[in-house]
């Protein structure tokens, strides 16, 4: 420890520009690795989330990107007719998120409502930290509506409490009864871009039945169509529905299986991710190369210091330990800075009251952040191993008797 | 008399440069002996000193030092002996410029883990007083004269009271006055502690002040 302290204070830090250059290069390498690793983990997690819909007979609707939709021409009577048709002829999973509402809560977040029907709820199997599952056979006009609340609302609206609020889609005052609390960081991944997620920590999950759809306005009807999932269906039935939608409300939808969505993602977005990963890898190699070059240059400049120490009693194995400890400290500092940046970024969602992205985690970081940091740590181990062993090789190649007189 | 070292070298080969030196070389030295090594440039004087000083173990042959076969010693043991049993007196530039003269001299104490030891501190004070470098202790090497730096290098070499002092051209860059001082200091150590002194030099005056002169010659 004394020898390490001596080397850091009396030798390495005497050439602080080299140390700073090294820290900057390693920080860049770490940041790039982190971004790439987290994107991969998030995509993988998203794939797992939406994989429950990847079943034979499931077809997921989305608005045809080439179709010019005229939403202002759509009438709620027509959309209601469409939902009646759906109820009579199809089994479908329905979930529509992102309807904002203002409700008191200890974090002053703007809440969002997520509307979900029974089939979507059954398939998603959201985990609860307390309380009971939703039920769907309530009467909108007569009963309180059972809801689940996100973890961020659990203390303001505990299980059993009642919430009186203006429902954003029915535009009427409703009484909601809290049935249960969703696990922290419950989220929904996008069907078409699995790396993108909405978090439900500040959401109210409201069960949708036929009666509720009848009371709801055009917003829910149209939004609900965008991610509608036909269950136990066929390609022909999906095509029939598409035809019906086009005739009655003038929207052109595409119905793809989740596998087709995955294929689409892989054809467009996954390629982008692969390109980003490839660029990251190339940049990483360049940065590690530069870091190694900086170290080897430092060795050339400090060879006298190293060899004099070797002359008076330092062994190569101790020198190796010193280098590993020194780089261990550098990487620890860099990882700590990276950690602070990530934590501050996560905390930023809370400061900005961004309910969709506010998350809970150990020291503010969620599991994918920690996993990505772990990957960065492994990459650092490899970088450290490469740099230290190359440095030692370089030092050993210079005879001590020559080095001391440099 | 017990010998302090016995060295038998078949050859020391520099593969990259494609030549070998010290072919069939043998050397035995007794404790307290003063030996100088002379010879033309490139004959292997410094290489021999590196082998004797445990800085180089890549050669064909055997080397017994303090009764142990060097090739059987671990790298850590070699480093420990370099720290505690062997002192190196090199040219005046063999100091770390970013450290003060005091820190340079005390460097071996760090590796012996005795830098805070009161007796080591006392020993340090005695040496710097004897060598006469107290006024420059807080200075950096580049702020000192060549003679002062040479004395600092000498002080560092004797900090651990080594059994052998190896000198490689210790007076090469010094004027005659400073040259005499360094050689006097070397022989005072030899006299006081029975330290073995081995000096590589080009200077025949310096060589002749030793008990024995070994002349290395190029092999035809």
Can you tell me about this structure?
The complex is a heterodimer of chains A (406) and B (220). With 406 residues, chain A is α+β, with helices and mostly antiparallel strands. Chain A has helices at residues 2-12, 16-50, 76-89, 118-124, 210-215, 218-226, 235-249, 258-311, 316-351, 367-397, 400-403; strands at 59-63, 91-93, 95-101, 111-117, 128-131, 145-149, 162-166, 173-182, 187-189, 197-199, 203-208, 229-231, 253-256. In chain A, strand 9 and strand 10 (197-199) form a beta hairpin. The model of chain A has no long low-confidence stretch (mean pLDDT 89). The radius of gyration of chain B is 17 Å and the shape is globular. With 220 residues, chain B is an alpha/beta fold. Chain B has 7 helices and 10 strands. In chain B, strand 1 and strand 2 (19-21) form a beta hairpin. The A-B interface holds A 2-3, 6, 10-11, 14, 304-305, 308-318, 399-401, 404-405 and B 46, 49-50, 55-56, 75-76, 78-80, 82-84, 88, 90-91, 93-99, 103, 107-108, 110-113, 115, 156, 168.
List descriptors.
heterodimer, A: seven-stranded mixed sheet, elongated, B: 220 residues, alpha/beta, five-stranded antiparallel sheet, five-stranded parallel sheet, 7 helices
Global geometry of chain B: globular
How much strand content do the residues of chain B show? 15-25%
Q: Return residue spans of chain A where pLDDT drops below 50 for at least 5 consecutive residues.
A: none
Spell the H/E element sequence of chain A.
HHEHEEEHEEEEEEEHHEHEHHHH
**pLDDT averaged over residues of chain B:** 88
- Our count of helices of chain B gives 7
Distance between the termini of chain B: 35 Å
Kindly name the structural category of chain B. alpha/beta
Count the strands of chain A? 13
Major sheet description of chain A: 7 strands, mixed
**Total number of beta strands of chain B:** 10
Strand content of chain A: 15-25%
H/E topology pattern of chain B: EEEEHEEHEHHHEHEHE
Q: What multimeric state do the chains show?
A: heterodimer
